[in-house]
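SEQUENCE, STRUCTURE TOKENS:
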Amino acid sequence: MNETASATFRDPGLPLSERVADLLARLTLAEKVALLHQHQAPVPRLGVGGFRTGTEALHGVAGLGPATVFPQAVGLGSTWDPDLVRRIGTAVGTEVRALHHKDPDRTGLNVWAPVVNPLRDPRWGRNEEGYAEDPRLTGELATAYASGLRGDHPRYLRTAPTLKHFLGYNNETDRSRTSSNLPPRVLHEYEAPAFRAPLAAGAAVAVMASYNLVNGRPAHLSPLISGLLRGWAGDDVMVVGDAHAVTNIAADQGYLPDHPAGFGAALRAGIDCFTEDDADPGPTVAHLTEALRRGLITESEVDAAARHILAVRFRLGEFDPVGANPYAETTAEQVNCAAHQDLARRAARACTVLLRNVGDLLPLTAPRSLAVIGPLADTVFTDWYSGTLPYAVSVRAGLADRLGAPAVRYAEGVDRILLRTPAGVVCGGGGPDGGALHVTDPPDGTSAHFDVLDFGAGTRTLRAVANGRYVRAADDGTLINDRPGPGEWVVRETFAMLGGGDDDGDGDGVCVRHIATGRYVTVGYDGVLRADAPTPAQATAFDVEMVDDGTAAAVALARDADAAVVVLGNHPMVNGRETEDRADLALPGGQEALLRAVHAANPATVLVLTSSYPYAIGWAADHVPAVLWTAHGGQESGAALADVLLGRTPDGTPAEPGGRLPQTWYRDAADLPDLLDYDIVGSEATYLYFRGEPLFPFGHGLGYARFEHRDLRLSAPETDATGRVEISVDVRNVGGRAGTEVVQFYTRQRRSRARQPLRVLRGFRRVRLEPGEQATVTWPLHAADLAFFDVTRNRPVVETARHTVMAGRSCTDITATAVLLVRGEQIPDWDAYAAPLPAASRDDEYGTTLVDAGPVEGDAVAATRAGAWLGFDRVDFGAGTVRVRCRASAPAGGARLEIRLDEPLGGPLVATLDVPATGHPHRWAEVIAAATGASGVHDLYLRFDASDARVAEIAFRPGSAG
């Protein structure tokens, strides 16, 4: 340490680049390689300590003991409030610093948050982690949260925020093997902007690559990391690999032959820090060292990665005197402090969305009695990335605190059962450690009673009444009632209860399948229950005997109450979570049956949905007078919901549901394309392109006040492509109480060469008004923001066109419009001769998918069925063409390609190309054929006769056959 105390890299007065370069020059190659793992080794001879990336901080500090738990990220998205989200980011960043100060070895300062993947499909298992289906809203909220995490000091970072997950990551099932196919427009208009915004603003300093493949190439090898992502930031960006993802390149993905090749390729592509083998850097160091020995990577490439990492460490203040860094002395008193608790309650109120309120049932006015019902009414669930709750306020507790315990009557609404066999009754153990489930006769009191909770898709949990613990299957299959709830990476607490006795599941009694292992429950010779049978035919058949009918008890309670509050939703660790997508959008059948019964007993029923994602609640939307949705809201969720349901806080301040939907709520999963279809333009997905009638649209949310929008006007009726126009609309509170309106501004381009969205969010303003008060709300519309990606010239273009400018309460509830003429460019027809036509830039397709043209760079199109085709709109062949050249591949055997005009099947045939067997997808043949009959402007189609053929580009030679 003494030898380096005066070294250049320790001088805070020097430029960052000089300091990083000096430290880098002092390190040996082996020491630099050791920096490239998540757990970076110290360098004692230079006084450089160890460093670890990856503290989880998605909506609070996770995995490090009690800390403030804020609403899930999708809940923060529903606030539509960047200022609030920034304050939450500041609070979380402060708690990270405080815990780091307390134990720097346990709490690292590189935080893995926020998640900026747009919520393209609500079936995504990690829906709860994103902000919105719109890239602009996502980018703005991510910038706000990351800004809070990083702090506002010009030199030092409070923490180092990492955006997750680059790129095209929106499905879980088989995520490491599936490819997200991103045409150029989807890439540049939908997927990329959410990442670009926080990087361009300097709010985020790192990015994590995603598990999936993109256009057939592992995302960790994407040329977009260096070719696109790093160009968005003014400073060095550290790119980290996701856990075990680089290992997947040669393992699950089988993309490269071995780990040195995979690790070397990832480094060359731009991965700086490898998250592999948990805390053991040994394998990563060995793979990279071998890649160096083989010449697969160079020392300069190691230096580049180490420089990105060290730049972040310097900005965190690691090599500066403690007194110079304003964040260094943040102490543990900040963790879950009173100010953060208050902020958590404000956030939980702000993320509550009122979906329906017929007859102004809400807010509840001085109820003498409330029936609070449902499996989520008296509990607060956490998700995989939640912190440890320091305390939890449920809906029942929040209302009881406000109205008094006697006024709040509670029923969970779940059935209590016995499981019988001819040998006796199934019993569990008492106390927190429970015991092995076993058959005995007679049973010992309530030890034989189990509550059955329905979480949908046939998934149920069993909770032992004897100790309130959930049943799980241990590693050896033994069923034990010892868990506080479903959890851990592999959820062992979920079961399916099927008709037993045979493979068809329709025999006598019920057989029980353990979902995680797929094994069926048997009663052993010793009377102990184990999940160890491979088929239902080998399972024990149980008779189910009802002890208490949960629905009947709930109905009896609701019938005599002033109103019923039914709290339903999901468990974040069950059905729809990391590694598991949802199969559909349905509310669990048992929960809907409970809701229907309660509503029949008491029409004054409020449905409170607490969930990580949208549900298709068509019956409730038609029949239940008041419906609220909130994401899982953290420690203050019940207190906040009590504020909203009653319309006021404990001190009498008016409270309202402040949220707006950050994604479309569909009526049925049938309204959605295939989960793996990432082409939102072609599949007409998300609010941008969806032509159906949603259950609730993007941006929807009611309040307790009522507003009118009037007189939308523009500061100018037209502008050029570099101009700016102010949008203004008058907003008046025409209700009887103060409230907040979220005024949303959208545009729609009326005519274009390319298919345009039906509407695009351009901005939004929150405005709070007293009854009768009016305000003018303005938003600056930059013409450059109206650009879309022109595939004919491979760049963004502002096209000359008229745009409908809209103000509204949601994307479909439009209240006022105006027309703006933008004078930009005229997009030309495809020029058949200026350059080859890239297959991936096609305007239309049938039966094709995007694939990688090579392991390092380039995209191509592959047929997925015989008869597939791709199309280019309006190709100008001039006076005529005499030759066509196609870069094509047919890995398994030869293929024939047809070039046709105007129609893909019956249009005039221009050329036929026979592609030889190439033997490998990345081995390409230049196929040339004579062309006839192509002159002037036509739509061009290339048709495949084989399902394994691939095309990278098509080129034409001008000339006249005569």
